[in-house]
Amino acid sequence: MQNVLEQRCYQCHGAQLQMKNVRLDSPALIKQHAQSVYQQVVVTKLMPMNNATGITEAERLAVKQWFEAGAKTP
Ligand code: HEC
């Protein structure tokens, strides 16, 4: 799961850039934003913005399953 975020989200929500004050580059931050990550990636599919980073349906499904299994972070 974290590798999906790393590939598809860090570019806009990482150390260099934190769009809308959302940073996802650590397990604690992922945990904190789990609900909105699920909302944006699985429900509304607004993120990644314009799918700039080319997320796949399989990766969206991985996010869905991660969230439904309790949004665990290492
Ligand atoms: C190309 C840049 C870009 C990428 C890539 C990107 N985002 Fe965003 N993200 C934004 C921008 C810009 C906003 C602010 C959007 C707004 O205010 O309408 C945002 C907002 C958000 C928000 C806050 C939404 C809210 O309204 O509360 C979340 C959560 C989020 N992104 C998660 C993600 C996740 C998860 C990914 C990867 C799957 C991702 N983003 C990839 C640019 C990006």
Structural description of this entry:
Helix 4 (34-43) packs antiparallel against helix 5. The chain has 74 residues and is an all-alpha fold. It is built from 5 helices and no strands. The termini are close together. The chain is globular. It has one domain (2-68). Bound molecules: heme C. Heme C (HEC) binds at residues 5, 8-9, 11-13, 19-20, 22, 33, 36-37, 40-41, 47-49, 52-53, 55.
Total helices: the number is 5
Largest sheet: none
The rounded Rg comes to 11 Å
Low-confidence stretches: none
Number of strands: 0
- Main structural class: mainly alpha
**Domain module tally:** 1
Mean pLDDT, all residues: 97
Amount of helix:
40-55%
Helix and strand sequence: HHHHH
Distance between the termini: 10 Å
Q: What oligomeric state do the depicted chains represent?
A: single chain
Compounds present?
Answer: heme C
Strand fraction: under 5%
Described by the principal axes of the CA atoms, the overall outline is: globular
